[in-house]
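Narrative progress, year one. The postdoctoral researcher (J.K.) led the effort to move from monomer predictions toward full complexes, under supervision of the PI. The following entry was the first complex the group processed end to end, covering 227 residues in total.
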Amino acid sequence: QSALTQPASVSGSPGQSITIPCGGTRSDIGKFNLVSWYQKNPGKAPKLMIFEVDKWPSGVSHRFSGSKSGNTASLTISGLQPEDEGDYYCCSYAGRDTFVFGSGTTVTVL
Amino acid sequence: QLVQSGAEVKRAGDSVTVSCTGSGYTFASYYIHWVRQAPGQGLEWMAMINPSNGDARYAQKLQGRVAVARDAAPNTVHIEMTSLRSEDTAMYYCARSHPGLYYFEFWGQGTLVTVSS
């Protein structure tokens, strides 16, 4: 199972919106509406930001939103803030109780 | 919360066991997954276990070299990795998911495993 494809980095100015794509296949993203997104900062455990493509866990800002089209999922961060900096990973269920993560995207607030 | 065992330093060819203990919830009611991150690399899903019956699943690339099992200690599972290589140097995390829900809602603090050649 190959890692899902994400751009290495995305940047934006405060207040702007950015979108992180996550490319998969017909066997993972394309087959299941079970994409989740995680924020990862150095020295900290990953934090769930979005689950089941577009749902928010309790306590996560709605400035973060998720979507999916075909084999590609996306995370959009609206009203970018300095505290949004970090690495973001998509993850998809891949069947038979297995999962695959994306390659990760570093978000920089200019 | 999920609390993991402490850092390990191993030599290439050794085996390592990392444990994960849950508290504050019914441990058997949630699956435990293992995810690792090598230095400068991305997250990698490794394996999962159903603590209620010990049923486990593994990432294909790690099959045969990794085993997850229930521990003798209460509310604890562990992952064992054999024939360690330098590329197994990573932070290893356990994470929790509810059966039938396919995301990791809560994570352990991580365990650093260093493999020297």
